[in-house]
């Protein structure tokens, strides 16, 4: 299996961009819980050879939980900077998932920027991000399936996934009947059955639930 590499980053480093961050999100399609984004940048001299056999940087969906956890701690230790941002269920309900995801992106970028006095270029999985201070579209590159091609984007997907999974396990403690510790808020059959039986909570996304309910009629 071909793993993500630094091809996109190297092209930008050679052009003089020293802080190139990969950005990705998780939880966009869930029925419940926040959407979480992360931004990760590596130093220009970074090499994948620094990874040992137990560490693999790849699209978070391609890694099991143990590999994600190992990669998560490696990234936090070895990245030039990283940042995490989230948009709450209230924001998702108010603005819609697209705008809420953009809010999470901007928070993650801002958090990572503080650690390095500014990010100069963004690599994003599929989407451009509007209204990022100092980073207009000319300083962004949207890459289809970017988390399978760029180490920085893949690393961001891992940071966001591990963070959100832990958060959903915490939220599950007070909502055990919805099985968020297992499904992480996604619309599994058990989750759907629980919604039918118990109704929705304040941590469920209104539009997603309405669409689900209407599809059952």
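Q: What amino acid sequence fits the structure above?
A:
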């Amino acid at each position: 299996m071909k793993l993500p590499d630094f091809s996109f980053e190297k092209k930008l480093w050679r052009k003089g961009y020293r802080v190139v961050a990969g950005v990705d999100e998780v939880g966009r399609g869930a029925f419940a819980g926040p959407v979480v984004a992360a931004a990760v940048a590596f130093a220009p001299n970074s090499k994948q050879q620094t990874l040992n056999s137990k560490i693999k940087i790849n699209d978070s969906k391609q890694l099991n939980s143990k590999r994600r956890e190992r990669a998560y701690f490696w990234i936090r230790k070895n990245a030039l900077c990283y940042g995490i941002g989230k948009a709450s269920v209230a924001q998702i309900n108010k603005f819609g998932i697209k705008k809420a995801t953009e809010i999470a992106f901007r928070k993650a970028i801002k958090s990572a920027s503080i650690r390095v006095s500014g990010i100069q270029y963004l690599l994003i999985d599929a989407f451009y991000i509007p209204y990022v201070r100092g980073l207009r579209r000319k300083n962004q590159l949207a890459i289809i399936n970017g988390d399978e091609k760029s180490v920085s984007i893949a690393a961001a997907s891992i940071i966001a996934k591990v963070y959100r999974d832990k958060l959903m396990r915490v939220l599950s403690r007070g909502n055990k009947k919805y099985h968020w510790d297992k499904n992480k808020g996604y619309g599994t059959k058990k989750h759907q059955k629980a919604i039918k039986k118990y109704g929705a909570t304040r941590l469920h996304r209104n539009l997603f639930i309405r669409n689900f309910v209407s599809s059952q009629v």
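Q: And what stands out in the fold?
A: The chain has eight helices and five strands.
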